[in-house]
């Protein structure tokens, strides 16, 4: 009767919808993995060639090192840091970051608005997390009229803390130590665990967030972050 026909049509529609959603999910899953492997291959090649140039890898080892990084390596690492200077992106106490490794940084790989991990200009064995505010060629104008405007030179950048409650002298960023070299950037923060119940992707430039999305999809392990988290 009509009731049975309508029920069958409803069931058929549900099955069709489920299949459609599965196909969309499968395509997105495959797309993420293809993009992820492309990023991983680029990272492996860049790192291996950099090590070869620096004499850490001989000619005969390059291909083996590339394959090892490609098959077994990760392109992210965990980094713990107090985030007072980067509030509200980070909490005031211990934060655990998932950081995308950037072995050879230039303007192709970072953009204004990215939260980056860089070597402390004054203590190079330590690392800072700051937001990228300007890149090479940008004119920097101080709020202090006594300071002359200047252009950032090639491969220089300007990084800032973003806690608006901190005075510029307290923030410890480019306003106190000046421009930094892009070569001092070692990674980009892509996920932040502030507490066990407060965590999520880091807001970076639109370009970088699109680039990092497959890496986040494949390498993010919230349980791993929680185990590493100190707070």
Task: Explain the layout of strands and helices.
Elements (H helix, E strand, L loop, with lengths): L1 H52 L8 H11 L3 E7 L11 E8 L13 E5 L7 E9 L3 E2 L9 E2 L4 E5 L7 H4 L2 H4 L2 E2 L3 E11 L2 E4 L4 H14 L2 H7 L3
Antiparallel strand pairs: 1-2, 2-9, 3-4, 3-9, 4-7, 5-6, 7-8, 9-10
Helix pairs in contact: 1-2, 1-5
What would you note in describing this structure?
- This protein has 231 residues and is α+β, with helices and mostly antiparallel strands.
- It folds into two domains: 1-73; 75-228, Umud Fragment, subunit A (Ribbon).
- It is built from six helices and ten strands.
- The protein has helices at 2-53, 62-72, 168-171, 174-177, 206-219, 222-228, and strands at residues 76-82, 94-101, 115-119, 127-135, 139-140, 150-151, 156-160, 180-181, 185-195, 198-201.
- The strands form two sheets. Strands 1, 2, 3, 4, 7, 8, 9 and 10 form an eight-stranded antiparallel beta sheet that branches. Strands 5-6 form a two-stranded antiparallel ribbon.
- A hairpin with a 2-residue loop joins β9 and β10 (198-201).
Please give a handful of descriptors for the protein shown:
231 residues, alpha+beta, Umud Fragment, subunit A, 8-stranded antiparallel beta sheet, two-stranded antiparallel sheet, 40% helix, Peptidase S26 domain-containing protein
Q: Sketch the topology as an H/E string, one letter per element.
A: HHEEEEEEEHHEEEHH
DSSP, total strands: 10
CATH topology of the largest domain: Umud Fragment, subunit A
**Portion in beta strands:** 15-25%
Low-confidence stretches are none
Distance between the termini: 63 Å
- How many separate domains? 2
Biggest sheet features? 8 strands, antiparallel
For this structure, what is the CATH homologous superfamily of the largest domain?
A: Umud Fragment, subunit A
Integer-rounded radius of gyration: 23 Å
Q: How would the global form be characterised?
A: globular
Structural class: alpha+beta
Annotated CATH architecture of the largest domain = Ribbon
The helicity comes to: 25-40%
| Number of helical elements | 6
Pfam families: Peptidase_S26 (PF10502)
Domain Peptidase S26: 75-140
Organism: Brassica campestris (Field mustard)
Protein name: Peptidase S26 domain-containing protein
